[in-house]
Design the sequence.
């Protein structure tokens, strides 16, 4: 099986004490009720600086229970693991540091980042089709709903801290990453 994971909030935590509603406000735009993210051309220099600082390793702690789980299942397993992350180009250096620091090259077959600054949901839709994923795990429910409607053969998991439940034919809410296997 080919199994893909988002990076932020799945393997790397968001800064502590900031509610997800605020992060959403920062990252998403309201355009005709459609899912639309703020891309770098629309992000001011100051906001870019804030976002780069907010991605510093001190504020973005690794989610070790998830990283360790992937480490343990990735050795001696026929499944292939991928990262598919919407991170923009201005975070490339921060992202390269994370990959090195946690040895992601040893866990993941390949990693895809949105360094051409596309809309993250369009980027992810394109990549998950290209690499033929069977499973994809993300924390952004709106984005997952977008992908779910367009990829009926892929099983999607919404990793969250509130509910464990089947939401749609191919969309499941899970509280623990290990639940992707049962
Ligand atoms: Mg995320």
Sequence:
């Amino acid at each position: 099986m080919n199994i893909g994971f988002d990076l932020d909030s799945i393997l790397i935590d968001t800064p502590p004490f900031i509610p997800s509603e605020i992060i959403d406000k920062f990252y998403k735009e309201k355009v005709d009720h459609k899912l639309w993210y703020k891309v770098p051309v629309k992000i001011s220099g100051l906001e870019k600086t804030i976002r780069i600082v907010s991605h510093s390793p001190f504020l973005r702690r690794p989610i070790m229970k998830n990283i360790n789980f992937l480490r343990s299942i990735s050795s001696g397993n026929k499944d292939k693991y991928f990262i598919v992350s919407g991170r923009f180009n201005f975070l490339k250096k921060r992202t390269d540091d994370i990959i090195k620091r946690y040895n992601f090259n040893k866990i993941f077959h390949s990693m895809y980042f949105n360094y051409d600054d596309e809309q993250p949901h369009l980027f992810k839709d394109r990549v998950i089709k290209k690499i033929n994923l069977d499973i994809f795990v993300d924390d952004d429910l709106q984005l997952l709903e977008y992908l779910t409607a367009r990829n009926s053969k892929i099983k999607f998991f919404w990793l969250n801290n509130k509910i464990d439940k089947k939401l749609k034919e191919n969309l499941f809410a899970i509280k623990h990453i290990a639940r992707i296997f049962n």
Q: What stands out?
A: The mean pLDDT is 91. The helical segments are 20-27, 45-54, 64-74, 92-101, 104-107, 120-130, 141-150. The radius of gyration is 16 Å. Residues 13 and 60 are 5 Å apart (CA to CA).
